[in-house]
Recover the amino acids of this structure.
């Protein structure tokens, strides 16, 4: 399927590995010019090379901390006019909610709510003027199904979701869409670090931790970043212009609700 975004500029934040990388790869395969981002220069360069070789697309790598104002300014300067924005960032480390100091709470809100809002504010008027814009926010399945220890992640992302629900309705008239993608359990470094943490704290084996996780997922497997990227690319397609203000769970059936 031709997604109708050949030549569009896509800014994919936090994309040197994992879900962000999955999105960058799928957008590059659809013919977009993609700006990828991370803080580790060597990993980012390797990823840029791999995506460019696999897709032939123009890939621009920007080493920057997306959670800081100067980092975001660097990203936006490198991108120029942004047609597609994929908001992503690292998530807060798991913690008992009692241990979250005021500073840690602020850092979580800054990273997972205020950072994506700042980027939306920066790109949205240009999208409206040009009558095309696609914004996808990578949030989390924990927005719909809270998980103990990830309370800050759930709360900050739910705040983002509510904020952008209103914004989406203010820009839909100009063919600018804003949607959320809510990952369940995907095979990335973040999940590996959660599992390593559980192994260290509870003295269980890797196999036990993985089995416990898979038992909660009807698909009985982790998701792959490529599957996530494909859904993202569709939401960014020309054809998806009538899908806005939605939050799509991609979790192998883990959320037990009907709607
Ligand atoms: N994987 C899952 O199953 C899952 C489930 C629910 C929610 N999520 C959320 O989805 C997001 C992506 O998760 P993931 O699993 O793909 O994580 P990951 O594999 O750890 O990858 C994170 C990516 O973000 C980059 N990054 C992190 N902090 C950054 C910053 N301040 N500025 C720029 N780049 C930054 C990392 O590169 P550098 O370290 O080099 O900067 C890396 O490329 C996270 O917010 C996570 O909480 C993931």
């Amino acid at each position: 399927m031709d997604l109708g975004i050949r030549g569009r500029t896509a800014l994919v934040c936090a994309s040197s590995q994992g879900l962000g990388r999955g999105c960058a790869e799928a957008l590059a395969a659809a013919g977009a010019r993609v700006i990828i981002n991370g803080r580790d220069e060597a990993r980012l360069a390797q990823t840029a090379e791999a995506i460019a070789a696999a897709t032939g697309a123009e890939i621009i790598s920007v080493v920057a901390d997306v959670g800081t104002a100067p980092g975001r300014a660097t990203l936006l300067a490198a991108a120029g006019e942004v047609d597609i924005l994929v908001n992503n960032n690292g998530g807060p480390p798991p913690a008992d909610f009692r241990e979250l100091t005021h500073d840690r709470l602020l850092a979580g809100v800054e990273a997972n709510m205020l950072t994506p809002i700042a980027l939306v504010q920066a790109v949205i008027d240009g999208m409206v003027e040009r009558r095309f814009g696609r914004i996808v926010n990578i949030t989390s399945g924990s927005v719909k199904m809270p998980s103990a220890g990830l309370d800050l992640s759930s709360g900050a992302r739910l705040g983002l979701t509510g904020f952008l629900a209103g914004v989406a309705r203010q820009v839909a008239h100009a063919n600018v869409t804003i949607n959320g993608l809510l990952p369940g359990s995907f095979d990335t470094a973040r999940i590996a670090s959660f599992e390593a943490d559980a192994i260290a704290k509870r003295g269980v084996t890797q196999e036990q931790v993985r089995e416990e996780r898979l038992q909660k997922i009807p698909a009985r497997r982790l998701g792959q970043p490529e599957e996530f990227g494909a859904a993202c690319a569709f939401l960014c397609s020309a054809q998806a212009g009538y899908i806005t203000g939605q939050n799509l769970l991609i979790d192998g059936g883990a959320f037990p609700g009907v709607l």
About this structure: The mean pLDDT is 97.
